[in-house]
Amino acid sequence: MAQLETVSLDISVVLGTTKMPIHQMLRMARGAVIELDATEDDEVQILANDMPIARGQVVINGNRIGVQITEMLPRPVELR
Description:
The chain is mainly β and 80 residues long.
């Protein structure tokens, strides 16, 4: 178990996605707003090393933003 304590993971939370032409992205500047296909009440996807592992809800506690896990996703067969 001590070996697991040294393993690092990149954890990402996906709030939503969008598609746009590359020329539009290249014209963006600081402060530009990218509209997502999600609302504030939608579930977020939680990724570990770019692999979906869970779903959750955004929670705000004072001036901190977090994610509450609502569902753990099954692991792919090849990882069991």
